[in-house]
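Appendix B. One record, verbatim.
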Amino acid sequence: MNNDQPHSTESAGVAPREFRRLGILFVVSAPSGAGKSTVLNALRQTPDFAYSVSYTTRAPRPGEVHGEDYLFVSMEEFQQRLAGGEFLEYAEVHGNYYGTLRSVVVEQLHDGVDVLIDIDVQGARQIRADQNSAIRDAVADIFIMPPSLDELRRRLNKRGTETPEQIEIRLHNAATEMEAWRDYRYTIISGSIEEDLQKFRNIMRAERYLTHRMVLLP
């Protein structure tokens, strides 16, 4: 009898152990006009992750849907949730508040659901510094970088939604935000929508195969 042969748990009537993958928190940032919204809108057409819907105190814009684009709440409710430590990250932009509800994200990650969150560099910095190690370990942060400020200017002009003064403000803010690209695990130099989407999908696939995201069930 050869005692060196591997023991089969199935033949012994013992069920084989299984793996389960923890959820990934895909944090995406980019300057306005870099192509982030186009990529995220394309990604949202597939159901292989949950898109994090932020709370905001600003009024809905034409065409925006409560619960789909944002969760529109009063300043009083937002402040109550903020005081209760309910937000994973939050920011004030032009007098309006935006925030991501912690409990929903934590529950989804625990259940093995990947979460996609669209936030600025300040919000990404808050998440990286979160006290919950499960949150920090789940992060895969991605910065979408325009090829140059000249190209970003061209895209903003082509969009035709801002005045020349607003474009200059966005370019100034973009130059500041782009200094943070080294803080991110991945950087995508934006090209065509097809190229950006393919690069993003490649990152998602690679992250899903990382060993440390796997848990061996008892």
